[in-house]
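Chain X:
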Amino acid sequence: MNLEDITEFSKIKDIWNDYFHDRNALNEFLNNVVMNVDYGNGNGKMLPDFSDIYVLVSKKDSPFEKLALHQKKTIDLSVVKQNYVLGYIWVCPWVLNRDDQVPCHFIQFIDSRISGLNIAKYMIKKYEDQMEEEIQLFPFEVMQGAEYYWKKYFTQEYGIKSQTALSQMIGEYGFTKEDIRWDNLMTAFEGFKKIL
């Protein structure tokens, strides 16, 4: 599937205010993800920032029937026919802006609701591309269980293949303990426990 052809990426408030989008799909996301006590970042934690969460939504004729049976789906497809929230990025409210460096934005939480489509990577690229100035989007915290996703991402996007290379990148960006929490990511690279 070509995500560019079948999706839109925007803040929830922009989709909600657009007459052509099905609001029931946002309600499905609110009920089954944001307010779901069984969901990793559910139980209302995202509610204060709900309007400003970035979402990737499906267009009217998204080919869900073409998905492989093994692809994990956490979307209730019976609720609506379009504008399903396929993935989301909850961005931290701060920006790290150091002299002579591209500003860094940070992800508080990111998730996709269909596996195997590289939705998270696609959303990161869409977020970076839609900013008025050049920015880079990084995870603020690499949580346990997500470290191998981020290891693969950093290897593909930045050529990071070792703890030494990751430490060098951290130094080049001037990241401190207050800026990032990447101990789990560092552990994924050769089992190193402490990064700063």
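Chain Y:
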Amino acid sequence: MKSLPVKNNDGQFQRGWKFGTFKATQVGVFLGGRLQKPRQISGWQIQSPDGCLRFSEGNWQQFVPFANLILDNYGIATRIS
């Protein structure tokens, strides 16, 4: 994962934010009362300084609003696009 330089609402840099991609196999999903076959998923992840990983399946355009919401919840002024 790569470091993500972000500033808080006071304009000070906050270290420890990282983002990157992921690939995984999703198993054990029930849909319509039936167990579905495993499927490959991929997307983006963001890690906060406290080590919490959050995942968003899909492409970059789908990830941006998700990541900005996470940053906003931590009081970060930086917005990614």
